[in-house]
Amino acid sequence: MGILDKLKSAFGIQGEQQSNEFITVFENCVEEATKESSYFYTVNFSNIESYNQIIKKWDDEKKGLFIVFLTESLNSNFKGYQKGSKKETKDFQLANQMIPALFRSKMKFTEGTIVSLYSSFKNSFPEKGYDKMHWWPLAGFFKQIEFNYPDVDIPNTIKTILEDILSFEKETNSYYYKDQLKLEEKIKSFLFKSENDENSVKPTYFVGEDNFKNIGNAILDQIKKEDQQNWFTLMQLAQKATGAKPTQKFLAEAKITMDKIGSDKFKKVTQEWFQEIINLKETITTHTQIYYKQEYQYNSIEFLSSPNVDILKGFVWMSSWYYDSNTIITISKLSERCFKKIPEKGPASAGLGNACLYTLFASKGLDGIAQLSRLRLKIKQNNTLALIEKYIAEAATKLGVSSSEIEDLAVDDFKLENHEFTYQFDEIKGTLSLIGMGKSIIKWYKADGTEQKSVPQLVKDKFDAKLKKLKSIQKQIDQTTSAQKERIDRMLRCDRVMTLDYFKEKYQQHGLLSFVIQKIIFNFSNNSKNVLAIYLKDQFYTIDFEVLELEKFTHVSLWHPATSSTQEVKNWRNFLMEGQIQQPFKQAYREIYLLTDAEVNTRTYSNRMASHILKQHQYVTLAKGRNWKAKLIGAWDGGDDDVAKLYLPEYKLCAEFWVNSLNADDQFNATGIWNYVTTDQIRFINTETNELVDLVDIPAIAFSEVMRDVDLFVGVSSVGNDPTWSDSGGLPTYRDYWQSYSFGDLSEIAKNRKEILLGLIPRLKIASVTHIEDRFVVVKGKIRTYKIHIGSTNILMEPNDQYLCIVPDRSLKETNNNLFLPFEGDNGLSVIISKALLLANDDKITDTTITSQINR
Fold first, then answer.
1. Burial (CB count within 10 angstroms: exposed 0-12, middle 13-18, buried 19+), residue 635
2. How many helices (H) and strands (E) does the chain have?
3. pLDDT tens digits along 812-839
């Protein structure tokens, strides 16, 4: 049956009379569209004269008849479209786009026309697979039904059509799965209103297929019946949360219903949902496909389904009306969970995570900004970091302060006094005390003042909720001290100067920050002089251990050793070693990078860190952790190189570190990401002029910090640091690099490590059999003598420099915890000391993987 016959069958003689007109008008539209473009992927109907001057002026019933014609055209031209026939492809594509264009306008149809429209769709696409909406706009068709039956009873024929649509099978992996669920919810709401009182609200639940669906719905079902109507109203509103951020209309509409529920009830339910998601595990599904009679299997990993993400986004946005501590912390934890990476996929739920970031930004007060500041140190995705920085900058602009100042203002002091606070549990007292970065302890005291080592039974039995709150605060404090330590370490990049009054108020007198800045060296200045002093026991002391009179100075900044003479740096290092003072991060012992003659000659770029082979995933993770904008490159067009960037706004500079893919032996993973990259030059760009800057014009601190970062990337992620790389195969072509790096010249980081080892080794119990020789820590064991490279920590055995492979057991705690180090956190230094202690008693080693090499 042809198009004309089908129209005649649907509309009688009228269809036969109008068929020729439809064909002529449609062919004219195709001809006019061809003049605009030879491809019909997106047609601009405002440029199609026949569409605007003829079709749009038809009455609605005639437009309905024309849509039936277009639907039949889709059907008749489909096979030609699949085969690539030029004419049939054009006809098919134009009809495919013209139907939704017509449905976008509201049209009044008779019941018979609506039935004919749906019949033409069903006849053209008889299968019930919902992906047919790619060819025919069911959502647009339903809007016409909504328009035609707004306030009257729906005829049974129309109900039958809608129920038929609801019966379509759902495929969770389909591209149209989310659209199908949305349309189904709209249809159900439409049918519900037609059958119920106008004040009734359709029960609305989480519908996406994931591990959260049943949990979330069970929590909804537990809500009292008198409150459920309001929750269903919010669920329907939340389903509309599809954008990047909420509209004011959305938030205002939600607030009306939220007020009916009550803030305590709203927070109880939503935070229970959020907590379930924080603890939710990803689901791994195995799929089987047959291709050319061969069976293939693959796994997909899912966290939350798209429809449920939209609803949850809506409730996260609604939470921006509240700014209590519990809400802010829960949203922050949820954000962190959402940005946790799923292997070979990316963030678990970036959309929901971004909603959390918005809510932290939009909530009143500064607690949300404090959490954004913390998350900036935890999250690695470039676009997410940019969004966090944008929110912090916007919040700072609103208050008329800088981004650094608003981060200062946002740090909670947790009501700490002398770095501790006390909770009273009847006659029992619990005192929380800060003891380190990310470390605090709770001590328990009886009424008579005697200490009790464990949590008293009275507290467990009678004050369970209060005890949980105390432990929650302890965790928050530990997270905050760790985050603030990292933030202050990064402040060394920018050479930030504060007024003395500001510094005293925001740092020295702050309950928590006054602890974080302990053992850090600051530069105090006035119009005539600069004096360095370290903060110890709530006092500032000079290098001569004299108390500094702060009132004589007007400004304060962090001291960077690149601004001091070599002797002054040595003096401060001696001060720390002699006083057994451990800084929270490398400051006095910070590596300093000065411009070399070679860099003066190359003028605009440095090759100091070039020609290294890095493990790409490790390098990119490390770079993002230091706030560089870096990305993974892979085996695709444009995936051969990358330029990692670090913006230094205080200097109006952007540092660039170039890397290239190492395309050797098809070394890429299942997603096409290169396993290895090679390093290239480092450059600096003026962000105002976008021009290259000569290295001699780069401020000393900016240059040193950039070079230090890149040296860290190389020092940690170079294949030369992997003791198993050569033995496990590696890349045979590049084994010379592994050998030269593993036992070659020391980097600045390694030179710094060597200086520390010179002071540490005489204090070790193995000092009599251990010494430093050039690039190595030499250990004389009972069986052989060993040379541990100070840079890579790899080992050679005398007399023939045989390689000894020892892989540190990361599950074991450090064996040198009681050994003083002048700063926290040098894993390489710990590995060297651990290996030296092991090899000094090589006759007592029982691990056969080691003894077999020693006795070979």
1. middle
2. 31, 23
3. 444 455 677 888 767 888 899 999 999 9
Return the sign of the alpha-carbon dihedral for residues 37, 42, 46, 49: positive
**If you ran DSSP here, which 8-state letter would residue 208 be given?**
S
Facing residues of 778 across strands? 771, 787
Phi, psi of 617, rounded to the nearest 5 degrees: -60, -40
Residue type, 329: I
CA distance 55 to 30: 13
Instruction: Calculate the CA 338 to chain-centre distance.
Output: 8
Angle at 232 between CA 227 and CA 237, to 5 degrees: 130
Q: Which of 522, 486, 519 is nearest to 503 (CA)?
A: 522
Q: Residue 296: its pLDDT value, please? A: 74
Q: Return d(Cα 693, Cα 30) in angstroms, integer.
A: 56
Please name which of 722, 715, 699 lies closest in space to residue 805, comparing C-alpha atoms.
722
Say how far apart CA 764 and CA 786 lie, in whole Å.
17
Q: What is the reported pLDDT for 812?
A: 47
| Secondary structure (3-state) at 452 | strand
Global pTM reads: 0.78
- Low-confidence stretches of the chain (pLDDT < 70) are 1-17, 126-134, 152, 173, 198, 287, 291-293, 664-666, 726-732, 809-818, 825
How many alpha carbons lie under 13 Å from residue 165 in its C-beta half-sphere? 28
Strand partners, 428: 425
- Ramachandran area for residue 799 (φ above 0: left; ψ -120 to 50: alpha; else beta): alpha
Within 10 angstroms of residue 351's Cβ, the number of other Cβ atoms is: 18
Token pair in block for residue 261: 């529920």
User: How far apart are alpha carbons 631 and 620 in whole angstroms?
Assistant: 6
Question: Which position has the token pair 């509409």?
Answer: 253
Q: Which amino acid is at 111?
A: E
Beta strands of 124-178 (E only): which ranges? Answer: none
In angstroms, the CA 597 to CA 61 distance is 83
**HEC per residue, 260-325:** HHCHHHHHHHHHHHHHHHHCCCCEEEEEEEEECCEEEEEEEEECCCHHHHHHHHHHHHHHHHCCCH
